[in-house]
Amino acid sequence: MAINTEKNSYTVIFATLMVIVVGTVLAFLASSLSDKIKENERLEKQQNILYAMGINQNKGEGSVKFIPTDQVAGEFSKYIKEQLIIEGDKITKDDQAYLIDLKKQATAAKNGETRKLPLFIGDKEGSEFYIIPMRGKGLWDAIWGFVALDDKMVVQGVYFDHAAETPGLGANIKQRYFMDDFSGESILAGTEYAGIAVAKGNNDPLNKIKDDNEVDALAGATITGNGVSAMISESVKLYKDYLETIRVK
Amino acid sequence: MALLTKKDASLILDPLADNNPITIQVLGICSALAITAELKASVVMAISVLFVLGVGNVVISLMRNIIPSKIRIIVQLIVVATLVIIVDQVLKAFAYELSKTLSVFVGLIITNCIIMGRFEAFALGNGPWKSFLDGIGNALGYGVILIIVGFFRELLGSGTLFGFPVLGNPIAKTGLYATGYENNGFMIIPPAALIVVGIIIWIQRSRNVALIEDN
Fold first, then answer.
1. Closest residue to A164, CB basis, from B96, B104, B154
2. How many domains does chain B have?
3. Domain for residue B15, yes or no?
C-alpha cells in the first residue's frame, strides 16, 4: 500500500477527516453522557451543602467522607428546610435554588442585572444553619465552596473545592485539616463583615484563637490561600444585608 | 522469558535505569516538579501516564503509515488529548469520585513531553507491540522517579507518607520532633524537586560512568 503522505492534498484531506472523526466522537460522547454527568454534579452539590453543615460521615481525623450518593437526596430534603433566592430586596423560596449557577449570576451582575443569590437554611437537631455558596479564583482556575453560619455569624463548617489547583499544594484546600480550622471562627470583626483570612503569619498553627478572623495557611499554596480569603470576604459581603436581618446581636 | 524476547524486555527495562526519561533524557520535568509534593499525587500521575502512554503509543503506531509527516505533531497531540478527554468524560459519568481526583491531572498529562517524545521517537517508527512495551517501560521509568521524588519531598517537607504522619506530630512536638527536628518547608516548593532529581542523576552517573557525556 503506497500512499504518498508527503502530498499537500493528502495532508489537507487527512487533517479534515481527523477533525471530523475526533469532533464527532467527542460530541457524541459529551451529549450521551451529559445527563449522567449533570446528575452526578447535582448530587455532589447536595453532598457539599450537607457537608458544610456537618452532615457527613467523617470519622476521627481521617479524610472527607460525604453522605453516600444513594442517600443524599433524602438527607438533603430532611435537613435543608428552606432554600431562598435573594434578589436585591426581594426574597423568594425556591426548592431548586441550589442549582443556581454562581458564575452566570456574577456575569449578570457585571452586566448591570440584579444577581440571584441562593441561600440555604438547614436545621440539625434544633439548631439553624445559614449556608452560603461561594465562588472565587485560585491559582489556575476557579475555586468554590459553601460556608455554614449560625445566627451569631460563627462558622459551623465549610466545604471547599477547586477545578485545577496543584495536587499536593493548592489542592489541599479540600483536605479536612484545612477546612476543619474554619469552624468556630467568626466572619464578623466587630460589626463589620470581614470574612476569614488564610494567613501565613498568624502564629497559631493549632488554630486555638477563634476571634482573629484568621486560619493558618497551607505551605506552598499562597495564591490559592489568598483566593480562599478573597472568596470568603467577597461572598459574605454579598449576603450582608440578609445576614444583618437574622443576626442575633 | 518466553513471552518477551531479550530485545522486548530491554524496551521495558532500559527506561527504568540507563535510559530513564527523566534522569537521562530530562523529559517530563514539568510534571515532576509540579505534583511531587505528595507521594499520593505522584502515584496517581504515574499510573495515569502508564495508561495514556501505553494506549497512545499503540494508537500512534497503528497510524504511523498514514500520518502526514508535516502535521504529525498536531496529530499526536490530538490523539493524546482525545484519549485523555474520553477517559475523563467516562469517569465523570460512571466513577465521579475517581474523576474528581484525576481531573486536575488531565492538563498535565496532555502536555507531558514524555508522551509526545515517545510518540515521536518510537511509536512513529515501530510496530504496535514494541510501541506498547516502550510506552509501558518509559512510563514506569518516569513513575519510579516521580515516586522517589514524592517520597523524599513528602517525608522531609511534611513528615508524612501518603498523608499519614510517620515522624510524629510537628505541632505537639512528639516523635522525632521532640528532639528538635523540624520539617523543611523548602521541600514543599517546586525547586526542591529539581534538587532531588539532581541528586538522583548524580548518584546514577557516579555508579555508571558510561552515562557521563564526553565534552
1. B104
2. 1
3. no
Q: pLDDT tens digit string along B108-158?
A: 888 788 898 899 999 999 999 999 999 999 999 999 999 999 999 999 988
Cβ of A11 within 8 Å of Cβ of B96? The answer is no
Question: Does some domain include residue B203?
Answer: yes
- A220: nearest CA in chain B? B189
Residue pair B146/B138 in contact (Cβ under 8 Å)? The answer is no
In chain A the first and final C-alpha atoms are separated, in Å, by 84
Could you tell me which of A98, A77, A90, A237 has the C-alpha nearest to residue A159?
A: A98
Taking an 8 Å cut-off on Cβ atoms, the answer to whether A33 and B35 are in contact is no
**Residues B45-61, mean pLDDT to the nearest whole number:** 92
Q: Is residue B215 part of a domain?
A: no
> Which ipTM score applies to this complex?
0.78
Range of the domain at B149: 25-208
**Cα–Cα distance for residue pair B201/B195, rounded to 1 Å:** 10
Give the model's pLDDT for residue A2.
60
Are A219 and A195 in contact by the 8 Å Cβ rule? The answer is no
- Which of A169, A202, A207, A224 to mutate: most B Cβ within 10 Å? A169
Domain for residue B157, yes or no?
Answer: yes
Q: What is the DSSP track for chain A?
A: ----TT-HHHHHHHHHHHHHHHHHHHHHHHHHHHHHHHHHHHHHHHHHHHHHTT-S---TT----PPPHHHHHHHHHHHEEEEEEEETTEEEE-TTGGG--HHHHHHHHHTTPPPPEEEEEEEETTEEEEEEEEEEE-SSSEEEEEEEE-TTSBEEEEEEEESSPPTTTGGGGGSHHHHGGGTT-BSEETTEE---EEESS---TT----SSSEEEPPTT-HHHHHHHHHHHHHHHHHTHHHHHHH---
Burial class (CB in 10 A: 0-12, 13-18, 19+), B160: middle
- How far apart, in whole angstroms, are the C-alpha atoms of residue B98 and residue A148? 26
C-alpha cell at A5: 503522505
